[in-house]
Design brief:
With 333 residues, the protein is an alpha/beta fold. It has 15 helices and nine strands. It is globular and about 70 Å long.
Length: 333
C-alpha cells in the first residue's frame, strides 16, 4: 500500500476536518488499459496534493504479485499479490484488450469475496468481465468499453450492460475506461469530500466538465456522420439493430418513409457509399469484434452478423481485412 503519498503543489483546498484515509485497491490484469488506470489513480493523487492530507491510499495488485504488461507493451510493477483489503475499501479490476482471456477464476473468486465482505468493487474499461465471472452483476446496472459490449453479451447473454460513461449500482462501480475513469473517480471524491474538492481536482486534471453517469461513451451518430439528416440516422440505426438478419433494403427505406432511390442518394451525398456497402462494413466490423473477443466459431460469427453462407462471409472478410477469418482467429490466439 502507498502510505501517506502527499505530493507538494501550489494550489491548496483546505478541509474543515481530518479524514481517515480511504483504501483503493487496483487489480491489474494482463493487457490492461494504462489510460484507464492512470485516469483513475491520478484524481486520488491530486486530491491528496490539494488538501495536504492522506485522503486516499492505494495498492496495485496482480494475481501473482508480478509485473503486468499493459496493452501498449509497457510493464507496471505492483505492490503485492492478491491480499485482504481494508474494511470499506474500493476494489477495481483494471482490464483492457482480450478481457475474457485475461480474466482468471482466482481473481474472480477473490473479487467475489471482497464484495461479499462489504467492499465496493468495480471494473475499469473491460473489468466487468471479471465481475461477471465472479457472479455479482446479475440484475445490476453496469458498463464496459463500448467496443466490447457486443462480445460481452455473447459470452454473458443473461447480463445487460449499458452503453454509458460509468455506472454506480450500490457497491458495484464500473466505467467504460479511458477518460471515463476520471469521471467515475471525481464522483467518488464528490460523494466523500464534497463539491469544492471535486471541482478543484477536475480543474487540476484539465478535465473541464464532470460528465454525468448517463452520458454516452460515444458521440452521437449524427455527430460521427457529420450530418443531422434524420432519415439517414434512422436508417443506419435500423441497420445496426438488425445486423444478424437478412435485410431487404427496399423495406428499410419504406420504414424510413422514403424510396430506395432517395435512400441511395442520401448515402452517396453524406457518406460516399451505397447503403449496401455501408451495411456490409457494419457487418464485417461486428464480425471482427466478435472474433477478437469471443470463442465463437467462424460459422457462428457469420450467422450472428447476417451472412447466410460462411463462404460469402470468408470472401468479404478477406477483402476487408487482408486475411481469412480462420487465419485471424488463429492469429489472435
Amino acid at each position: 500500500m502507498r502510505e501517506g503519498l502527499v505530493p507538494h503543489g501550489v494550489a491548496h483546498i483546505p478541509l474543515d476536518e481530518q479524514h481517515d484515509p480511504v483504501h483503493v485497491a487496483f487489480v491489474l490484469l494482463p493487457n490492461m488499459s494504462m489510460l484507464a488506470f492512470s485516469a483513475a489513480i491520478e484524481p486520488l493523487r491530486v486530491a491528496n496534493q490539494l488538501t495536504g492530507q492522506v485522503l486516499f491510499r492505494w495498492t496495485a495488485m496482480s494475481e501473482d504479485g508480478g509485473p503486468v504488461a499493459c496493452s501498449n507493451g509497457l510493464e507496471i510493477n505492483v505492490d503485492c499479490a492478491l491480499e485482504e483489503t481494508d474494511a470499506g475499501a474500493y476494489v477495481f479490476v483494471c482490464s483492457g484488450v482480450q478481457p475474457e482471456k485475461a480474466t482468471s477464476q482466482k481473481v474472480a473468486d477473490w473479487v467475489r469475496h471482497q464484495w461479499r465482505t462489504g467492499r465496493t468493487v468495480g471494473g475499469l474499461c473491460t473489468g466487468a468481465y471479471t465481475l461477471a465471472r465472479a457472479g455479482i452483476l446479475k440484475g445490476k446496472c453496469f458498463t464496459l468499453h463500448w467496443e466490447n459490449i457486443l462480445p460481452f453479451q455473447e459470452s454473458y447473454p443473461d447480463l445487460d450492460p449499458s452503453e454509458q460513461l460509468y455506472a454506480i449500482d450500490g457497491r458495484i462501480m464500473t466505467c467504460g475506461g479511458g477518460a471515463a475513469a476520471t469521471d467515475l473517480f471525481l464522483k467518488i471524491i464528490y460523494e466523500r469530500f464534497g463539491p469544492i474538492l471535486s471541482e478543484a481536482v477536475l480543474n487540476m486534471c484539465l478535465h473541464f466538465v464532470h460528465r454525468s453517469e448517463q452520458d454516452s461513451q460515444q458521440s452521437s451518430l449524427s455527430a460521427s456522420l457529420g450530418t443531422r439528416n434524420a432519415k439517414l440516422v434512422q436508417i443506419i440505426g435500423l441497420f445496426d439493430q438488425h445486423l444478424d438478419e437478412a435485410l431487404n433494403l427496399d423495406d428499410v427505406a419504406g420504414q424510413a418513409g422514403i424510396s430506395r432511390r432517395q435512400m441511395e442518394r442520401l448515402f452517396n451525398r453524406h457518406i460516399g457509399k451505397t447503403p449496401k456497402q455501408y451495411l456490409m462494413d457494419l457487418r464485417l466490423q461486428r464480425a471482427r469484434a466478435l472474433m477478437a473477443e469471443t470463442d465463437l466459431s467462424v460459422s457462428e460469427v457469420a450467422a450472428a452478423c447476417g451472412f447466410e453462407a460462411v463462404s460469402h462471409f470468408s470472401k468479404r472478410f478477406r477483402e476487408r481485412f487482408g486475411m481469412s477469418p480462420y487465419a485471424f482467429s488463429i492469429g489472435r490466439g
